[in-house]
Amino acid sequence: MTTDNRPTLTKRKATSSRSRPRRPTTDRLRAQARKVTNDLQEMGNIASDAVQTNLEQMRESASDYYEQGRDEVHKVEHSFETYIKDRPVKSLLIAAGVGLFLGRFWKRG
Q: Which of the two residues, 107 and 102, has the higher pLDDT score?
C-alpha cells in the first residue's frame, strides 16, 4: 500500500467577490465623504441651536440681574434721601467730614 504524502490542494471558491460587483474605490470614497459632510453639517446645526439657546438664557439672566441691581440702587438712594430728610444737620456734618478727608487724601497723592 502506498501513501501519498503530497499535500492536497483545494480550490477556493471566490463566490463573494464574483457574486456582487464592487464599485470602484473612488465612488465609495465619494459616498463616504458625502455622508461625513452631512453628519458634520448636522452636528454644526445642533451645536448652533445649543449655543443660541444658551445665549438666550444668558441674556434673560443678565436682564434679570440688571433689574435686581437697579432696584437695589433705587432702594439705597431712597434710604439716603430719607436719612438726609430726617437728619439734615448730621448729614451735612458727615458730608463735610468726608469732603475734608478726601481733600487731604487727594493732596498727598
A: 102
